[in-house]
Design brief:
Number of helices: 2
Helix content: under 10%
Distance between the termini: 36 Å
Structural class: mainly beta
Shape: globular
Number of strands: 37
């Protein structure tokens, strides 16, 4: 009950896409603004084979759309992690397990998928801008090789994902207390090519010692072509046209070395691993600012290098009753960032906000955990102590922000009690305390101009948020299915969120990260799996929760001080997810997925409901060595993101008609 595991082999309706696409259909997971959510929160720690890397983010989540689903064996969801895991991620952990063949000899898998999206226009452009991407191609060749003989196992996985996407097509209407109204569209055509290679070797030296050396390389190139027209309320007068070209390359390289030693005593184990990650963002923006009286050409370039070294030691010692787990970890993380602005005629860019900023993070941690599992009872109790020291040194000439730092030494306790009523019924009670530290991009001082009048900015004064989680769970199973229910409660201090304010005399909104006081959520989650017939299995996931954000007051310091006071807000939200898997004749399978997400609360406003249907079919051919699949996401083309935001002196509503409907056809061959 402390971990739910899902194989991606049965996720037919999202085959051929990224791991982000595939996980949207798994029970217990939803998505918002390109991020995964567990029980309504996107504060999820994402691991690859049990480790954090820059590919998926340290502390938060990033670049899940870069990992092809074809390379993944299974997904683990851990809502109540023990002290063995890093303490960040209040919503829990998602662990992505890469495929690794265990058969002797030489074997592998070759695959290819192709598809197209944006076949129909959801909403026409405002006049005077470049066309939206349509019939966008998706191509994903993949190769997996494995050689296992005697004491050696060598593996290689390689993928290339090429896509064109209508990445954003958002229409926003802004209303100001002084009577001004601005209507805008933000359209972003994106071309992406991602190459990912993972390779390594396992050496089974003897019955007691195993060594693994592996590496991962990923290169993502992005070209964004954006148009942002601004009109008056009647759409008869174009006040401004903001166009941009983004040319970005993201490079990630990871090296891992692991030594596992099994002692003579059964169950006694030592594991030591070292992991180094390098991640580079090389980003260039070119802007064309078309005004009634002039046209200005502006640009900026950003270079960010992330260096992360992790050393982990984990030890398990069996006891007469149960086992004792302990270990330590040391992390050193350093991110130098340099942004240079190149202003043009009458430039709207804040060129003084550029320069250099260095982020450094040092985290030593130690943990101890006791686990007891008997015929009737389960007990897991542990504590992790983390010391965190963060420094952020910024350009001393920055007009608003100065260098800042923080540190803390905190205990993170976990407790899980379980009772087996009989072989098929079990209850559990869990508690854990977790933290979400601001990531480097959350405190990054540079304004981001991919939206010219709703500008995102970081905040060096941002501090961690701490969360206490409680859960009462029950699970029962029978011959043809199972049922899981959980009641949960979460309390967060110093909630991290973006808050938008306007400068007096201006219509530009600045969204700045802030600690917005206390927030709470409590709810019920149900997962039901039932074999309805020999040819069909039904999986239903229901999650309903109450979200509460206490009253708070903050000061946005950029570009000038603006105070925002918020009253207490609450909403009842949730989601429903239905998966039906069909077992068809002639070695064929099909899947139908329907997802509904209710309106939800965000600081300063709310999101509106969303609904989509996905479907797919696959068939085994060539005596089981070959496989064909065909699928479609958001068949009815109904999915869109709508939100409403209210601030001091303004309010706006926005709806994003981005690309959600994609048709894919694929083939894979095992040898």
């Amino acid at each position: 009950m402390d971990k739910k595991t899902f194989s991606l082999a049965g996720n037919i309706s999202q085959a051929g896409g990224s791991v982000l696409d595939a996980m949207r259909n798994l029970p217990g997971i939803t998505s918002q603004d390109g991020k995964l959510q567990l029980r309504g929160s996107d504060k999820v720690m994402v691991l690859i084979d049990g480790k954090q890397t820059a590919l998926t983010g340290f502390g938060g989540q990033a670049s899940l759309e870069n990992i092809p689903a074809s390379a993944i064996e299974k997904i683990e969801i851990i809502n109540n992690p023990s002290a063995r895991y890093d303490a960040n991620g209040n919503a829990g952990i998602i662990n992505i397990i890469f495929k690794k063949e265990k058969k002797e000899g030489f074997n592998g898998k070759l695959g290819i998928s192709a598809g197209a999206g944006a076949l129909w226009i959801k909403k026409e452009n405002y006049p005077g801008i470049r066309p939206q991407y349509q019939a966008t191609p998706k191509i994903n060749p993949s190769l997996s090789l494995n050689y296992r003989k005697n004491k050696t196992n060598i593996f290689l996985q390689a993928d290339n994902m090429y896509t064109k996407t209508l990445n954003k097509n958002e229409f926003a209407d802004r209303f100001y207390d002084n009577g001004d109204t601005i209507r805008q569209q933000t359209k972003r055509n994106r071309t992406t090519n991602i190459v990912t290679v993972r390779t390594g070797v396992d050496w089974f030296k003897d019955a007691s010692n195993t060594f693994t050396v592996s590496g991962l390389f990923s290169s993502e190139s992005i070209i964004d072509r954006g148009d942002e027209p601004f009109f008056n309320a009647s759409l008869k007068e174009q006040q401004r046209l903001w166009q941009f070209l983004e040319d970005e390359v993201k490079t990630t390289a990871t090296a891992t070395a692991i030594w596992q030693h099994k002692f003579a005593q059964p169950g006694r184990l030592l594991n030591i691993n070292f992991n180094y990650t390098f991640h580079r963002e090389d980003e260039k923006y070119f802007f064309t600012n078309i005004m009634p009286s002039f046209t200005g050409l502006d640009s900026f370039a950003l270079l960010s290098d992330e260096h992360v070294a992790d050393l982990n030691l984990d030890y398990i010692h069996p006891l007469k009753y149960g086992r004792f787990e302990t270990g330590l970890k040391f992390r050193r993380r350093f991110i130098p960032v340099n942004m240079q602005f190149k202003p043009g005629l009458n430039s709207p860019l804040d060129t003084k906000a550029g320069g250099r900023a260095d982020y450094s993070e040092t985290i030593p941690a130690i943990y101890a955990n006791y686990v007891l599992e008997s015929n009737r009872y389960e007990l897991e109790a542990g504590m992790r102590a983390e010391y965190v020291h963060v420094e952020y040194d910024v350009n001393p000439d920055h007009p608003v922000y100065k260098s800042d730092r923080y540190h803390y030494l905190q205990p993170f306790v976990n407790l899980r009690l379980g009772y087996k009523i009989d072989e098929n019924n079990k209850i559990s009670l869990s508690y854990n305390r977790r933290v979400d530290r601001p990531n480097e991009v959350d405190i990054r001082i540079f304004p981001k101009y991919d939206d010219a009048e709703i500008i995102k900015v970081g905040n060096p004064a941002l501090r961690p948020q701490f969360t206490s989680n409680f859960e009462l769970g029950y699970k029962t199973s029978w011959q043809s299915g199972n049922f899981f229910a959980a009641a949960y409660y979460k309390h967060t201090n110093a909630t991290i969120t973006r808050i938008g304010t306007v400068v007096p005399g201006s219509t530009i909104i600045y969204n700045v990260f802030q600690n917005a006081g206390n927030s709470y959520s409590y709810g019920l989650e149900f997962m039901i799996s039932q074999e309805a017939a020999k040819w069909a299995t039904i999986n239903l996931n229901l999650n309903g929760y109450k979200n509460i954000i206490d009253a708070f007051s903050i000061v946005n310091k950029y570009p000038v001080e603006s105070i925002y006071d918020a009253a207490r807000e609450d909403i009842f939200s949730g989601n429903i997810k239905l998966n039906i898997n069909f077992h068809l004749p002639y070695q064929a399978e099909a899947q139908l997925t329907a997802i509904y997400q209710a309106p939800d609360l965000v600081p300063q406003g709310k999101t509106f409901e969303r609904f989509s249907i996905d479907a797919g079919v696959k068939k085994q051919i060539q005596q089981g060595k070959g496989e064909l699949f065909l699928n479609a996401t958001d068949i009815a083309n109904t999915l869109q993101l709508k939100r409403e935001i209210k601030g001091n002196g303004f309010r706006y509503t926005s709806t994003d008609y981005y690309e959600t409907q994609v048709f894919r056809l694929g083939y894979a061959y095992k040898f």
